[in-house]
């Protein structure tokens, strides 16, 4: 019974030499070499395209969050604008009512200020 190494995914007898990935996967013929290089180039292009997609997606998320922030700010500004105009209208109404209510028409009387006594 052969003794296996600790690598459970690719068991290999300890008595035989381990495979060198560079020598094992390196193609020996020109046609195989061209196909291998073509496959590596294709994988590289797919990785670049995938990276571009991820970056565009992340930029889109950033743009969406920026737009949401702007919409929130616009909403707050509209609320402030609406409340200020309402406060001004209420203040104008109160000022007119206050001035009209405090004036006593037809009554004149002495001032309520005390005269200073001169010593």
TrEMBL record:
Start-end of Basic residues biased regions: 110-119
Ranges where the record places region Disordered: 92-119
Protein name as it appears in the record: Uncharacterized protein
């Amino acid at each position: 019974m052969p003794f296996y190494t600790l690598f459970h995914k690719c068991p290999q007898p300890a008595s035989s030499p381990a495979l060198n990935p560079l020598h094992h996967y390196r193609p020996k013929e020109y046609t195989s070499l061209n196909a291998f290089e073509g496959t590596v180039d294709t994988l590289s292009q797919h990785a670049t395209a995938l990276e571009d997609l991820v970056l565009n997606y992340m930029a889109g998320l950033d743009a969406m969050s920026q737009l949401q922030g702007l919409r929130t700010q616009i909403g707050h500004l509209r609320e402030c604008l609406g409340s200020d105009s309402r406060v001004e209208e209420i203040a104008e109404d109160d000022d007119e009512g206050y001035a009209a209510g405090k004036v006593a028409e037809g009554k004149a009387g002495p001032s309520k200020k005390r005269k200073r006594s001169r010593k």
